[in-house]
Automatic annotation (TrEMBL):
Record's protein name: AB hydrolase-1 domain-containing protein
Region of interest (Disordered), ranges: 298-319
Pfam families referenced in this protein's UniProt entry, alphabetically: Abhydrolase_1
Biased composition (Low complexity): 307-319
Amino acid sequence: MHTPRSLLKRRVYVPYARIPEGRMLELPGRGATYVTDTPGPSPDSPAVVLLHAVGCTGLLTWFPSIEPLSRRYRVVTLDQRWHGRGIQSPEFSLVDCADDVAAVIDALDLGEAIVAGFSMGSIVAQRVWRQHPDKVAGLVLCATTDRFRSTLAERSFHAAMGVAMGAARGVSRSRTAARAARAAGRATNRTLGIAPLDIHDWAVEEFRSTSPWAVGQAVAALGRHHSRPWLGRIDVPTAVVVTLKDKVLPPDNQIALARRIPGATIHDIPAGHASCVMEAERFVPALLEAVNTVNARRRDFPRRRPTSPSSSSRTSESA
């Protein structure tokens, strides 16, 4: 019988890249999460914060991109809540995820950062700007959308997921179930202290570090996301990496989102939804081009408004 590792080695290409060391970072009043902080070529290198896809970790989504980006930028990854070694909490919220990112930016003293996200990470990146515009120097949105219920199939899927996960959230409010959920997250967190034999073993352990229950909650939250009403107010340089062969998020929706953001540039690649790793040879050059474009345009986007009030952090996911 084939094990997950043997199947991965036989059937799935995983590119080799050096995996940076990370550490647990305490975010005051929020909890602790796992971060990597790779320095750039100089102490004042611009900072790029990378936000991962659903069911992944910061490193699993971005490990092929970190070293190429670090030749010019300071590169930070983090595990978002309920993923990998991210914050464990009674409920999952995209609003909380965005606040977590802002807390990481403060804890690492990044000032303003370019925030880049892939799939779910791109949704969180949008919310970081929405909730904490003073911390965002630019956005890079990869394999993204402004809403998930754009087709009948998507609406049916997310409606069913929302009902199922709503019931699960009700159960999780009990003290016993909440403890069980946190214990499940810790039990699946195999990455701490792992010395993998090869990149495939490491990838399997990273993938296993997020429980299926957590993925279901995150997918249900994504189904409630709707940023279309405020995309036109984004006032930082933005680049959108469009995955033209994407079977999860339609390319037309990705392009439509880019056109709703003032001045956004489009960087398309003939690749699918897992291209950040599985087609890294196509994705990484497009990501570098997108980040470089955003960084070069920063001076053309003077900040036009003050910091959003702290109450913005409690804005609903669909607001």
